[in-house]
Amino acid sequence: MDRAQKEAVIGELGQIFTDSGVVVVSHYTGLTVAEMTDYRLRMSEAGGNVRVAKNRLAKIALKDTPCEGIGDLLAGMTVFAYSEDPVAAAKATQAFAKDNDKLVILGGSMGSDILDPAGVKAVAAMPSREEVLASIAACLTAPASDIAAAAGAPGSNIAGILSTIEERAGA
Asked: Against a cut of 0.85, is the pTM above it?
């Protein structure tokens, strides 16, 4: 690898470390090509990516980034899993590590917060961005759906509801 290629890799890694919502660092010693391909596929389906790079180049790229503290984790055969969604890469990595004991989670970072393996597990247990948005949408539409259900109910139910409201207002 010549100097220009190394500079390109450092630039790409720097962009990953700066823009990602979460970066998970793992050892992948003993994973076969098929297992690594499966890991990459699972990560892609979750909305993340997997990147293997030389530790020396990754340490250079980590300088002056929010997740600079994960440089201490870079020893041996390490792989980076990252995603813009602060939960996706952690969930996919945790799920893969549960199925395959050859992938050992070392830690990671969520912005400037450095995570140990338990921290990565805690992040993986959090709901994803899509799940949070769905629950917010459900909370926002619940009153409207209640009104629509009441409006579609038979007249006796509406009369009962109106009398209950009248009693509460009088009290």
From this structure: no
